[in-house]
Amino acid sequence: MNVIGFIFIFILLNFNLLGSETYKIYDSKDGRIEELSGDWEFHCEEFSSTTESDKEIKIISIPSSWRDSECNGEILSAKGKFRYRIIIKGETREKGLSLFLPVAGTSMIAYWNGRLVHSAGDFLNGQPGFKPATVPISFEENNELIIDVANYDDRFGGLWYAPIIGKTTELRSIRRTRLVIDLFLSGLLFFFGIYTLLVFINIRNSLFLLIGLFSLGISFRNMVEGERIFHIIFSTDWWYTLIAIAHLSIYLSFPFLYIFIKALFKIKKWRWWEIIPMGVIILYSLLVLFTKPTFYTEFLNYAMFSLFTMVIILLVFTIRATIKGQSNAKYILLGMFFLVCAGIHDAVRFASFSYSFELVPIGLLAFVFMNIFVIERRERKLSVITEKLEHRLNEKLDTVKKLVPKSAFKFIESSISIEDLEDIKNYDSFKFTTMFADLRGFTKISETRSPEEVLLFINNFLKRIVPPILAEGGHILEYQGDGILVYFTTGAETCLIASIEMQKALRDAISKQELPDLEMGIALHAGKGVFTLLGNEKRAEPVLVSPAISEVQDLEMACAKFSLPIVFSVGFYECLGLEAMSESRYVGNLGKTHIYSLKENLV
Question: Is the pTM here over 0.70, yes or no?
Fold first, then answer.
């Protein structure tokens, strides 16, 4: 069957065509690059099914599609096999010229002066294929170029781009340049995509994820649509997949860009005029994934209109953010300007298939670069702020570490929620000794002085008594005006030593007339407790929970009752070592509590 078809085609190629010839004049000696666009003969009936004499020959402008053209009173559909023919006239030149044959939809066979020079796909058996080629030709005074095009799976069949004629060296140089530029731009976009995805994995910033997915999508677009690198690499069996990639690379990746811009400018609300075009694009992407090109390309215009609508919306968002002075908006606007200019350039030059490379890939690269620059700049600013906050937090933690034991930091440094911390059974209790010190007679002084003088007095008082506490490893739980609540995890003896040194520091300040002549009572106690968080999810503080905290404050009243500077409970007494116990004595009861003090006034 294939042999019969080829014989039939060969007979047709050598049969004198009816009607007047459509021709183009070309200066073959000069050999300049020139597109063979313009009027061609179009044989609008499938030549494989009718005799040559029955054909209707029409004049059609190239590049174009035959879809919706009229043939013998009927409108042609997208599918079919049709012939394009043109005569190129000029001076004879045997060597040095070539013909660049771009893709046609969806397979083609090209003949130059009756000789087969190129084929893409399986023309007779319905196998599509995109395969451009540069073929050397010998130029005569009258040259016949015939291109037979068959369409199987595209909504527009035809010569989508005009062939180009020119010097072989120049044409091949241009194609190499285009190929290198496309590979370079696609590689950069692919690199940007992978880079931003890796950054996302590292820092979990969703902006990097969104722009990374968009970058990968448009890098595939360049591979398929630019110099059709994927079509060169893969066989025609991949045709359906490559066409799907060409559509999805823009329409499936664009929603990621849209969400990225909204997130960057913190636009949370979605309106109906955003949801509708976004929905159309998503539905079209699903059609591309699950249907054939002959079906989903019928809806391409809706997707293109929706895409254009969303581009306008993003442009409005960006302009509005720039006017408001929103950080980095001007850089996004500059990237959009590059992309719009590139799109206008390529749209104007599309019909003539210029041999110069497309600007849209460069515009996309500039746009992606600007977006990555913006989020990198934003991330660096956040990093600086975070470092400052971490530095301040570390300073605070260093201070807190001096005030609370290590057991408290499993609450402070963990990410446990307030709800989990409410169950204090999950945490081990620890033994400690506690101290409460309070000035006697301070109330009368505070009543006769201004608030500023009272504050100055308290700070001067604390300046003397706090250093002995810290020197012995004490942790301050709370300041209570003229009182101070402290606990120790270093043992009862260090707690007792700190209380003695505190009394000495106070007496020394009084003797130097740095403080009024006041007495300070210090109560010492021992107990067990746990650290937990007190508060709610908005504010919580680590606190020591123990009955000993309230008991030691009640115990301090024994100082006034027995006129002693330091008193301690029987529990504290039992925690002392033998040497310290020998220096202690029982002095009486406060309620049911046995009170101890020192044998001698060591203060």
Answer: no
